[in-house]
Every structure is written in C-alpha cells, then in structure tokens.
C-alpha cells in the first residue's frame, strides 16, 4: 500500500502543479525513484506551500469581505482602494497570517467551506435595516445617475 505522502505528491505531479507546489518540475518516474526521506522532505515542502496559498487566499478574501461590509456601513470613497491598502498594510497582514497560518494548515477542507461562505456573502446585497423597496429605489437612482453621466 502506498503511503499518503506518496499519493499526495503523485496527485500534485500528475496534475502539473509540481513547480507551483514543490518548487521544481518533477515527473512521476522521479517520484517513484525517491527514498522515504526524500518523499517526506518533498511532502513537507508541499504542505508548506499549500498552507501558504490557503492562508494568502483566506486573508485576501477577508480583506475583500471587510471592505465590502465597511462600504455598506460607512461612506467609503473607494472600496477597491481600501482593500488594496489593507493588503499593503504590513503589520495587519503579518498579524493576520500569524492568526490564520496554523488554522489554514490544519483545517484546509474547512477553509474551503469558510471561503465559499465569505465569497458568497461578499456578493450579497446587505440591506441593513432598509426594506427591499428602498434598496431597489436606491439602485434605480444610481443606474439613472450613471446613465445621465454617460449621456453627458
């Protein structure tokens, strides 16, 4: 029976993601020729790179969701610029990575569900105490203003 490290690396190599997740292009023949120590070393590299990618995605998703939520509650001038400023904030990003790093590495399957939820919420129109009619009227007013600007 093949061990789980071999199986995971075989999938990475077979799907063409070796360079991305292992740091170098590799073939399944090279994988078959590896010693147990080499397999373990490459599996650790894979785990670290995979966890880093999950962590980066999670933080970017959190920034996007936060920017969206903040713009729903506050008169934010430029939501995309706010998100970029958050991403470029070294202290904030470093601290968030220290919080989410271990979680991302140990709970990657749960992180997929969390990411799904956050991404869905990001694309949901928050009403925040407004009824549907008020939201529709606001959207129509914005569309009307945009059309007038285009005509000018």
Description:
With 152 residues, the chain is mostly helical. It has one domain (4-151). Helices cover 80% and strands 0% of the residues. The protein contains eight helices and no strands. The N and C termini lie far apart (71 Å).
Brief summary of the model shown:
With 152 residues, the chain is mainly alpha-helical. It is built from eight helices and no strands. The mean pLDDT is 80.
Average pLDDT score:
80
Number of domains: 1
Oligomer: single chain
Give the termini separation.
Answer: 71 Å
Listing every helix as H and every strand as E from the N terminus to the C terminus, the arrangement reads HHHHHHHH
The outline comes out as: elongated
How many E-type strands?
0
- Compute the gyration radius: what is it? 22 Å
Strand content range: under 5%
Measured as a percent range, the helix fraction is over 70%
Number of helices: 8
Coarse structural class: mainly alpha
Largest sheet: none
- Uncertain residue ranges: none
Task: Give the key terms.
152 residues; 8 helices; mainly alpha; elongated
Write the layout of secondary structure elements.
Elements lengths: L3 H11 L3 H5 L5 H5 L3 H38 L5 H10 L1 H17 L1 H15 L9 H20 L1
């Amino acid at each position: 029976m093949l061990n789980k490290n071999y199986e995971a690396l075989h999938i990475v190599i077979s799907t063409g993601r070796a360079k991305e997740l292992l740091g170098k292009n590799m073939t399944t023949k090279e994988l078959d020729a590896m010693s147990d120590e080499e397999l373990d070393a490459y599996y650790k590299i894979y785990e670290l790179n995979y966890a880093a990618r999950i962590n980066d995605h999670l933080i970017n998703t959190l920034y996007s969701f936060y920017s969206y939520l903040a713009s729903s509650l506050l008169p934010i001038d430029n939501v995309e610029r706010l998100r970029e400023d958050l991403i470029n904030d070294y202290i904030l990003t470093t601290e968030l990575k220290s919080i989410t790093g271990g979680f991302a590495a140990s709970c990657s399957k749960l992180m997929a569900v969390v990411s799904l939820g956050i991404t869905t919420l990001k694309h949901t129109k928050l009403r925040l105490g407004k009824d549907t009619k008020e939201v529709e009227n606001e959207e129509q007013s914005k569309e009307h203003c945009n059309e007038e600007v285009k005509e000018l």
